[in-house]
């Protein structure tokens, strides 16, 4: 087997589809015994959507998601700070999509199995480390080793492969923010295909639809994230992270967030289930690659979920790996070339997101006005708002003009 991939998440499955596209043998090993559509909503930026469309998934993406038309920033009182078009409405040649993470993962998995066969993804095999060109796996039948020309670790923020490379690194870094996430069937707000961020650094809400409205009820599935920052020395039930949450843990802080265009407490109460997550990342490292082994996606550059960049970058990672293997062959040179292209940018994004990334304008407005104003121009100029937004897009790799002019990484299927 030429390439072994640890992890059948979005990064690993995208790499599998890419390697199948360019005719390179591969196999994916996944820890869970059965893939299920887990998770909540995510956003896919045009740079990632471009790659999925090149993999022949245009119609399928349209079927599972919403083409996001705008991104708006609002104060804790619902006052508009800055709204900008997104996707094709902003001039990109490709749309931005809001989708359910689990549905995207299942789409990638089912497409890969249809194209490359059921044996291309082996479940119930957890990566535990590596030696040379061998991937170490734990299975229900005991340990197993598989050799390959290359090994790509896409095994997430708790990557065993990264832990072997950096044994002193320890747990992910938590800065004190907690995310409560859910989905609610409700009428869409504003224009119906809009993503909004409201609040400030200590407390905010993100919301966007991930399905079109039902013609019968007018309701869509709204993905929402409520965030609060607490004293990190409190620990916040670290042993229970990623747990089912109680509304009393956070809803009282949002009870007054009733805007002309969105009733936030009603949205939160309408969720069937709410889950609690810490907002964590890891410090950037100097190397991802050790001989024939490299890191990808959250194993390489876990970052705060700011700027809608996590899943998008995982997809781009996979396509860059594939492009370099196509150019150099399945060699260590390909992995080094991938790292040289991607690592500097993702390291910069990780550090920028710790400073709130594009969301920093929320706190700026809070500091200057307390969230109340009649005209945003009395707080900050629209030119400065536009410049702040453009700077992050350029940093993250989805500046409109640059992306539109960029040659394809690999091209369409």
Describe the structure.
The chain is α/β, with parallel strands linked by helices and 413 residues long. Helix content is 31%, strand content 25%. The protein contains eleven helices and 19 strands. Strands 6-5-14-15-16-13-18-17 form an eight-stranded mixed beta sheet. A hairpin with a 2-residue loop joins strand 10 (134-139) and strand 11. Helix 7 (310-328) runs antiparallel to helix 8 (332-354). It starts with a strand and ends in an 8-residue tail after the last helix.
Q: Are there runs of 5+ residues with pLDDT below 50, and where? A: none
Overall geometry comes to globular
Strand content: 25-35%
CA gyration radius, whole angstroms: 21 Å
Can you give the helix content as a percent range?
A: 25-40%
Strand and helix order: EHEEHHEEEEHEEEEEHEEEEEHEEHHHHH
Mean pLDDT: 93
The overall strand count is 19
End-to-end separation: 22 Å
What order do the strands of the largest sheet run in, or round the barrel if closed? 6-5-14-15-16-13-18-17
Keywords:
413 residues, alpha/beta, 11 helices
Spell out the blueprint of helices and strands.
Blueprint: E1 3-6, H1 10-22, E2 26-29, E3 41-44, H2 46-54, H3 58-64, E4 65-67, E5 70-74, E6 80-85, E7 97-100, H4 101-116, E8 121-122, E9 126-131, E10 134-139, E11 142-147, E12 150-153, H5 160-165, E13 173-186, E14 194-200, E15 203-209, E16 220-229, E17 243-244, H6 264-269, E18 274-281, E19 293-295, H7 310-328, H8 332-354, H9 360-369, H10 382-396, H11 400-405
Parallel strand pairs: 1-2, 1-12, 2-8, 5-14, 12-19
Antiparallel strand pairs: 3-7, 4-7, 5-6, 9-10, 10-11, 13-16, 13-18, 14-15, 15-16, 17-18
Helix pairs in contact: 1-4, 1-7, 2-7, 7-8
């Amino acid at each position: 087997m030429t390439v072994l991939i640890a992890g059948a998440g979005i990064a690993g499955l995208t790499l599998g589809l890419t390697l199948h596209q360019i005719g390179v043998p591969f196999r994916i090993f996944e820890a869970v015994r059965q893939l299920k559509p887990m998770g909540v909503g995510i956003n896919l930026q045009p740079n990632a959507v471009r790659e999925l469309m090149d993999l022949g998934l245009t119609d399928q993406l349209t079927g599972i998601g919403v083409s996001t038309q705008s991104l708006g920033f609002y104060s804790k009182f619902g006052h508009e700070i800055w709204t900008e078009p997104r996707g094709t409405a902003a001039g990109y040649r490709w749309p931005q999509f809001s989708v359910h993470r689990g549905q995207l993962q299942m789409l990638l998995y089912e497409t890969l199995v249809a194209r490359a066969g059921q044996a291309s993804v082996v479940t119930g095999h957890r990566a535990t480390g590596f030696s040379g060109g061998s991937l170490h796996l734990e299975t229900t039948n005991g340990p197993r080793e598989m050799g390959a020309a290359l090994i790509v670790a896409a095994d997430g923020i708790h990557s065993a492969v990264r832990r072997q490379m950096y044994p002193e690194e320890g747990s992910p870094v938590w800065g004190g923010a907690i995310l409560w996430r859910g989905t609610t069937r409700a009428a869409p707000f504003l224009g119906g295909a809009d993503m909004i961020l409201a609040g400030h650094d200590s407390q905010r809400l993100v919301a966007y639809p991930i399905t079109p409205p039902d013609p019968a009820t007018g309701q869509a599935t709204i993905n929402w994230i409520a965030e609060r920052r607490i004293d990190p020395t409190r620990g916040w039930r670290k042993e229970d992270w990623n747990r089912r949450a109680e509304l009393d843990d956070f809803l009282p802080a949002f009870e007054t967030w009733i805007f002309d265009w969105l009733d936030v407490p009603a949205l939160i109460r309408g969720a069937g289930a709410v889950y609690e997550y810490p907002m964590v990342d890891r410090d950037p490292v100097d190397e991802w690659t050790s001989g024939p082994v490299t890191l990808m996606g959250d194993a390489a550059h876990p970052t705060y979920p700011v700027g809608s960049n996590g899943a998008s970058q995982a997809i781009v990672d996979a396509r860059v790996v594939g492009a370099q293997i196509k150019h150099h062959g399945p060699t260590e040179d390909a992995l080094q070339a991938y790292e040289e292209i991607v690592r500097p940018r993702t390291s910069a994004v990780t550090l920028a997101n710790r400073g709130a990334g594009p969301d920093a304008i929320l706190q700026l407005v809070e500091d200057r006005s307390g969230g109340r104003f009649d005209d945003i121009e009395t707080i900050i100029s629209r030119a400065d708002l536009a410049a702040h937004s453009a700077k992050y897009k350029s940093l993250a790799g989805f500046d409109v003009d640059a992306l539109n002019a960029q040659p394809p990484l690999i091209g369409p299927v």
